[in-house]
Design brief:
The chain has helices spanning about 15-35, 45-55, 60-70, 75-80, 165-175, 180-190, 235-245, 245-255, 265-270, 350-360, 370-385, 390-405; strands at about 1-10, 95-100, 105-110, 120-125, 130-135, 140-145, 150-155, 195-205, 210-215, 220, 225, 280, 285-295, 300, 310, 320-325. By secondary structure, the protein is α+β, with helices and mostly antiparallel strands. The chain folds into 3 domains: about 5-80, no CATH class; about 95-335, Penicillin V Acylase, Chain A (4-Layer Sandwich); about 350-405, no CATH class. The strands form 2 sheets. A 9-stranded mixed β-sheet has the order 10-9-8-7-6-5-4-1-16. Strands 2, 3, 11, 12, 13, 14 and 15 form a 7-stranded antiparallel β-sheet that branches. The protein is globular and about 60 Å long. The two termini are about 20 Å apart.
Length: about 425
Amino acid sequence: MQATTFRARRVDDIDSQWRIVFNDYWPAYETWYRQRKMFDINPESLKQGQRQLASVMPEMLPLYEAMLEVANDCPLAAQFLTGYQPPAYLLNCSQAVLLDEEPLLIRNYDLSPHLSENMVTHSDWLGHRIIGTNECLWGLDDGMNAAGLAASVTFGGNNRVGKGFGIPFIVRYLLQTCETVKQGVRLLQRVPSHMAYNVTLVDRQGSFATVMLSPGLTAIVTRERSITNHQAQVTWPEQAAFSKTLQRKRFLDELLSGGRLNERKLLSAFLAPPLFNSDYRRNFGTIYTAAYRPLSETMSYHWPGEQAWNRDFTGFRAGEKSVVLGKYTSLSAEQGYLISGSVPQHGLSDNIRQQLLQGLLYLPASVVSRPDLLDNMKRELKADASFSWADYAEMMAQLWRHSGSGHRSYIGCR
């Protein structure tokens, strides 16, 4: 178990309030950025980042310029703050949408407390109020705006790095400029992400979507109510096995399709295995569970055995909360949950099976060394309504086993 402290701060004024955030966190980010970027820190990379910011996120330029003044026009900070081409960054998380008494977006953020800012901020920039979990100084891992749009991110399960912006900066931009899921989806379809991530959106009208982003590929827009750390297919088997992404996805799908589910029960599930994780040593421990309610404009952080930490737009309060990480609850039979660690099999929807079929088009050439296995998988996806995530995982494992693919090393996380 590990003790850590979470902070709530208002950063409405960049020159004074956000300056404190910069002074507190920039030294650690500077070290990380220098170590990870190395030879990519130069005037040309800075100019490229600024050009991309002006072209793709022009609404953010006034904020960027104000932040540069706080940073005393430091070239390294200026390059970092563009949000363009940051170092590789991944986090193993789970998230889900529940449409109960009001729309709810709930997520587990899994990393190490030493690599997390552990800070929720309230910002009122350019007339748009946002509450969210701060990341990369002005980015967000999850959040909600006063217009009633909430967003959250999980890693998409691919270690390829391309050209684009870091996902915390994209989430900030989305909540800064969009008010509905429809607007958010359109933004995600045009803003390039430098790595694979899944962004789940829900608004106060009850609209929701999960958008799968990958560098260089068209965004996949789905009606998935839950997502973990893969997309239409598993493309990084070692990471999928380590993070148990398929098992967590199956668990959530079963939970959401079971009926009689309310916020309390769903929250209890997120505070217990298999969604709750405690491998902090390998950056796979649950740092917090966040619940966003865009209709009532409230959000809360949760930890097993700890009192909830609530925040809203009406009376957002600065403060601190110390918690002990690593405790978790068990799902009791009285709550109607399984505690055996296994989830009953269930068939995937037609929509998901179609997306998986499309995803097979992007398999690496080395995998297709056994076209008979690939053809069999396609037939199963097309014809078998009982085809489950477990079937998919088993067949993908067979494909990779016969491909002779070597081990790929784990990407370092900030």
